[in-house]
Automatic annotation (TrEMBL):
GO cellular component, one term: cytosol
Organism: Variovorax guangxiensis
Pfam families: Ribonuc_L-PSP
MF GO annotations: deaminase activity
Protein name: Enamine deaminase RidA (YjgF/YER057c/UK114 family)
Matching CDD domains: YjgH_like (cd02198)
Length: 134
């Protein structure tokens, strides 16, 4: 297997190395982005749900930007929400601030019981601009 073409956003590489995963990998014209949460610089959760969702999108946009992408390049989204029945509407009202205009990407929403102290996580696949090489 060829070495993975990993994308790191500025300033957070130590957190990814500590937790032993890549924030994103380029492959075959696509960018596969690991789940992004509303973590502060030190990796701790932002306690307020709405602020946590905004920070998750900010962290996602940093990863996308490091690969030369924007949210407009996203084709598939998976969101994970702790206690989705109670938190979905609160989290989802923030999404239009980042989502852009139609046509929108595909979406899968999953209610979960635990996200390592977080309440919201977003994972995406984006089409790389140009020939797909970073």
């Amino acid at each position: 297997m060829a070495k993975r073409d990993v994308v790191f956003p500025p300033g957070r590489q130590a957190l990814y190395e500590k937790n032993r995963y890549s924030p994103a990998v380029r492959s075959n014209g696509f960018l596969f982005v690991s789940g992004q949460v509303g973590s502060r610089e030190d990796g701790s959760p932002e306690p307020d749900l709405e602020a946590q969702v905004r920070l998750a999108f900010k962290n996602l946009n940093a990863v996308l930007g490091a690969a030369g992408c924007t949210f407009d390049d996203v084709v598939d989204v998976t969101v994970f929400i702790v206690d989705a029945e109670a938190n979905f509407e609160k989290a989802w009202k923030i999404v239009p601030e980042f989502w852009g205009d139609a046509p929108h990407p595909t979406l899968t929403g999953i209610g979960v019981t635990w996200l390592y102290g977080f309440k919201f996580e977003i994972k995406v696949i984006a089409k790389l601009p140009g020939n797909g090489e970073g």
